[in-house]
Amino acid sequence: MIKSNKYKMLNTGESGFTIIEVLIAMAIFSIGILAVGMMQINSTGGNTNAQSVTYSSEWALGQAEWLLTQGAANVSAYDAIVTTNPPQALDGIDNNYNGQIDEAGETGPISISWTVNEVDLGPNIGTDIYNYKIVTVTVTKTLGGQTRTISLQNRIPKIV
Ligand SMILES: [Ca+2]
Ligand SMILES: [Ca+2]
Q1: How do residues 105-119 score in pLDDT, each as one tens digit?
Q2: CB within 10 Å: which end of the chain, N or C, has fewer?
Q3: Residue 13 domain flag
Q4: Domain range holding 91?
């Protein structure tokens, strides 16, 4: 006697999944996917912050090094190192992240400034360099109500 496969499959006793089991599995899977999504969002935010800190640090370092070269150039260049809050269109940095530095009318969330404190210990101190300037370069980013500041301090000796 030949039985059809159709009847054999129906008589195996396997019941499969109920709709409730499938819904519970989907709910658990959704929670897992949500967690992965949140991790992705946090990771993207962290990368953006790291990039911002890197840019700010690079600009602060670049300005600090430029001031250092000015200090070694000549006496008038050394004397010209003073506390400055330059306009954004003349500050040598890309304030608005558009790939152009100091384009006409540039304004953006990044600004740079530096304070200078001159130290003159007098020649009787017994060292070769008794006159120097303490320069603190500060890069400030203000975006979305948040302000982030990075400062670099450097000493510029009077060797000219
Ligand atoms: Ca720009
Ligand atoms: Ca600029």
Answers
A1: 999 999 999 999 999
A2: N
A3: no
A4: 18-157
Residue 59, in any domain of the structure: yes
As a whole number, mean pLDDT of residues 5-12 equals 57
Instruction: Please name which of 64, 80, 101, 63 lies closest in space to residue 158, comparing C-alpha atoms.
Output: 80
**Spacing, Cα 156 to ligand 2 middle (Å):** 24
Q: For residue range 55-99, what is the model confidence (pLDDT) as tens digits? A: 899 999 999 999 999 988 899 999 999 999 999 999 999 999 899
